[in-house]
Write a structure and sequence with these properties.
Elements lengths: L1 H37 L10 H7 L1 H4 L13 E3 L3 E5 L2 E11 L4 E13 L2 E9 L2
Antiparallel strand pairs: 1-3, 2-3, 3-4, 4-5
Length: 127
Amino acid sequence: MRRKKLVISLTIIFVIAYVLFGVWIANDTKVVLEKAMSGAADYPEYMNQTTYQKINPIERGVGKENFTYDKELHRIGFVFPLHFFFVSKVYVTQQYENDSLGLKEPVNLKLKLKSGRWYATNAHIKP
């Protein structure tokens, strides 16, 4: 009976820790997507150049050169992270609509824990 309680307690602790890590990853994923879409100068703190080029609309060639990011028009759906220790694969849908650009796309990100935050190392956007 004691062993069963121990196993259940450890399982509950593991599940809580896994979910909390998932919340942390989801928050950092939203920051990564916002930085990439906005073209923020500090994006290298959150992702590598390749990832930035795959997400940013101007770099991808889907946005006009005069594209300006408006956070109010950017919708980020439910973030579903699968993680194992210091690496994560994230599935999320983002939507952005203004007068000159309309996107609704599923995004897959690969993240790794780097300097206390989740850093995007690769992105794949399904057209």
